[in-house]
Amino acid sequence: MLTLQFFIIIFGLGIIFIKLKIRVMKTKLLTPGILLSISIALISCNKSGNTPKNSNVSLSLPATVAQYYGPDDRRNNIATLGRVLFYDPALSVNSAISCGSCHKQAAGFADNVQFSLGFKNVLTRRNSLSIQDINSQMIPDFTYGDTLFRPGSSLFWDGRENNLGNLIMRPVTNHVEMGIADPSVLPSKLASIPYYANLFNNAFGSSQITPNKISGAIALFINSIQTGNSRFELAFNQGGINTSLLTPVEMQGMQLFENKYNCNSCHQTIGGNGTYNTSFSFMNNGLDVNPTDPGLGALTGNAADMGKFKAPELHNIALTAPYMHDGRFKTLDDVLNFYSNGIQKSQNLDGRLQDSSGNGNPIRFNIPNQDRVALKAFLNSLTDYTMVTDPKFSNPFIYQ
């Protein structure tokens, strides 16, 4: 559906084109640059907007249910339903945006832009955090309605949620993101879509649709999105260290990451499963002297928490740019530049990023070029190409 703004732009360009055509008739000259400019304008004027999807869409699922949780596990049918719901824009008020719009498989289930667009094409206020590997504290014996995370675990940049089912519904009901003010309207909306009756019946033994079943199915799908096939993980998950799977420069980067620069103390990539779910991973990393976003502090009301955010899990970090809660850094080089000599003296600056003066001054790592090369090589070894191309995590809808 084209917006009024789009039509106005096209109309204006049409007038320009007519004038140019008249000039061409006189001069027999219309430069390729003018044509290119017109083409770029036509493409750019609506390239980033979220508009309701056209009705010519089909759902493509494999004949055999994908294994999300192992053979003959009843949760596979629930996760299959969750996959469809995750990618279905019908979960937004105007059927323009899905969960998958802001959490892209190819980007490690983060977004590849600084701020995502909501259903009204309004930007979100924080960068979309990756939703992979968030199930390390899931209750193993899942029965619907259980809290999927142990008390004390935290989700979102500011840790405002510890229940994955609730995490699902927060963007659905958010006034910027998906706009469903009252989740109770979703069952009737989805019931009007033909494929959901069988999907809910296969998942729950009944075609009845409820908000809890919706969030529970998406939660189980998200819980199944795990890395495990990066070269780094394969090197360390065989009962020992298989250094042949990592290059010498990657091994050097790993040592720098863990020891010299102490990155692992915040991100727990080596010898741990990341810090996404832990309650002690919030920190002020000195992005600003005076943070404009209070982060955790807005929830706790504690002045000591102002400017603190969750330290993200780093698998697929090479794919999840831009970086930081506000997406200010476009590349890993930008991140390394910041930690090299750009950390600011913020009031709540984490102690691990302060120098030895005792005055709260930020540390200056002054990372030399050879260390940067090694660190980036190590971070790239965390990429799980299997996960980001696995069909069972992909968008099952085909738009024509």
Q: Per the principal axes of the C-alpha atoms, what is the gross shape?
A: globular
Number of helices: 14
State the domain count: 3
Distance between the termini: 14 Å
Low-confidence stretches: 1-48, 136-145, 274-279
Strand and helix order: HHEHHHHHHHHHEHEHHE
Average residue pLDDT: 84
Computed over alpha carbons, the radius of gyration is 24 Å
CATH C-level label of the largest domain: Mainly Alpha
Reported by name, the CATH topology of the largest domain is Cytochrome Bc1 Complex, Chain D, domain 2
From the coordinates shown, what is the CATH architecture of the largest domain?
Orthogonal Bundle
Helix content: 25-40%
Protein model, in words:
The protein is built from 14 helices and four strands. Helix 3 packs antiparallel against helix 7, helix 5 packs across helix 8 and helix 10 packs across helix 14. The chain has 400 residues and is mostly helical. It has three domains: 41 residues; 171 residues, Cytochrome Bc1 Complex, Chain D, domain 2 (Orthogonal Bundle), CATH 1.10.760; 150 residues, Cytochrome Bc1 Complex, Chain D, domain 2 (Orthogonal Bundle). It has a two-stranded antiparallel ribbon. Strands 2-3 form a two-stranded antiparallel ribbon. Helix content is 36%, strand content 2%. The radius of gyration is 24 Å and the shape is globular. The protein starts with a helix and ends with a strand.
